[in-house]
């Protein structure tokens, strides 16, 4: 069965997203099929592009030009200077991509970076970011952020909160839900029948028997014991400082971490340029490059396309795996 093309959103047109879309087409035009939802007038124009009327036309166009599903924007696309008049269209493009994925016209959604301040300046955007908006559009209450590269997959249980707030935010229910969504996502979209999950401790040395905190023994261990009894392949809580060397990584398929930096430092150290942001728990595949709009270098032609390229590649792999398992 042929895989439907991937929908790549424009993101903030004053950022690096559109130039990276062009570079990604150059790298991938013989490898996979995607189309960009954007205003053709905003494109840098360094590669040929062709407007399509629908996703089904993308495969024919892809070898010779970047397929564009045209979407009107009402402001200028000046590098590094977001125009509030574009905010509504940035949001509408995301909604359009999700609609195409939900109906099967697109096999996955890959989102170029947005700028939350630009959206709030130009429209009433009440969500903290991309992920929460996608969950709203999909009608799901809880999603999980995974960062992935060839060498490692990591999932932070708590994300963008102050370190001092992590112990009070980290609950047994939150940890359990994070592990369940991660396991289901690895089964459904990565082709792993029995995913092996390593769970980091919260405290140094995973609490060292209570000498460095009780959260590991009192909160994490009971959750893991219960899930293991249900058939989950789990190890932990493990000292975070010994989880990420090569031999340790070979023993698991994903690492569940307790807070943002515990997860993101190792993956960005291992592969800063090619890390991909994956949202698990949605009823469709969503990936994104693991960087922002980079206003400071937008329009200069120096933005590295590696993360966008890998995000599209991973989206195709996940969509193919899901198609095989359903």
Explain what this protein looks like in three dimensions.
It is a single chain. The chain has two domains: 1-141 and 282-326, 3-Layer(aba) Sandwich (Isopropylmalate Dehydrogenase), CATH 3.40.718.10; 151-270, Isopropylmalate Dehydrogenase. Helix content is 37%, strand content 17%. The protein has eleven helices and twelve strands. It has helices at residues 17-28, 58-61, 87-102, 116-122, 130-138, 166-169, 172-190, 215-229, 246-249, 260-270, 306-325, and strands at residues 6-9, 34-38, 49-52, 66-70, 108-110, 144-149, 152-156, 196-200, 233-238, 254-257, 276-280, 285-289. Strands 3-4-2-1-5-12-11-6-7-10-8-9 form a twelve-stranded mixed sheet, sandwiched between helices. It is globular, with a radius of gyration of 20 Å.
Secondary-structure blueprint:
Layout: E1 6-9, H1 17-28, E2 34-38, E3 49-52, H2 58-61, E4 66-70, H3 87-102, E5 108-110, H4 116-122, H5 130-138, E6 144-149, E7 152-156, H6 166-169, H7 172-190, E8 196-200, H8 215-229, E9 233-238, H9 246-249, E10 254-257, H10 260-270, E11 276-280, E12 285-289, H11 306-325
Helix pairs in contact: 1-11, 3-4, 7-8
């Amino acid at each position: 069965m042929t895989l439907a093309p991937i929908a790549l959103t424009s993101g903030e047109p004053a950022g690096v997203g559109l130039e990276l879309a062009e570079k990604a087409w150059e790298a991938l035009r013989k490898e996979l099929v995607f189309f960009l939802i954007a205003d053709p007038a905003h494109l840098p124009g360094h590669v040929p592009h062709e407007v399509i009327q629908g996703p089904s036309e993308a495969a024919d166009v892809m070898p010779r030009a970047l397929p564009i599903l045209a979407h009107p924007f009402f402001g200028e696309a000046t590098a590094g200077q977001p125009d509030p008049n574009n905010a509504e269209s940035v949001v509408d493009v995301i909604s359009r991509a999700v609609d195409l994925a939900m109906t099967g016209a697109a096999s996955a959604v890959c989102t170029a970076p947005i700028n939350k301040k630009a959206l709030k300046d130009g429209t009433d955007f009440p969500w903290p970011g991309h992920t929460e908006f996608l969950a709203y559009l999909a009608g799901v209450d809880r999603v999980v952020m995974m960062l992935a590269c060839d060498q490692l997959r990591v999932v932070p249980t708590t994300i963008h909160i102050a370190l001092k707030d992590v112990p009070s935010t980290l609950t047994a229910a939150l940890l359990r839900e994070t592990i369940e969504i991660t396991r289901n996502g690895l089964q459904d979209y990565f082709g792993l029948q029995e995913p092996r999950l390593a769970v980091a401790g919260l405290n140094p040395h995973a609490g060292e028997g209570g000498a460095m905190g009780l959260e590991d023994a009192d909160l994490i261990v009971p959750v893991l014991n219960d899930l293991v009894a249900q058939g989950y392949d789990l190890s932990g809580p493990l000292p975070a400082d010994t989880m990420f060397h090569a031999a340790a990584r070979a023993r698991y398929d994903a690492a569940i971490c307790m807070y943002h930096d515990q997860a993101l430092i190792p993956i960005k150290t291992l592969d800063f340029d090619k890390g991909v942001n994956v949202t698990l728990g949605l009823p469709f595949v969503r990936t994104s490059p693991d960087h922002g709009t980079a206003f400071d270098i937008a329009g200069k032609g120096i933005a590295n396309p590696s993360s966008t390229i890998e995000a599209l590649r991973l989206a195709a792999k996940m969509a193919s795996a899901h198609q095989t398992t359903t």
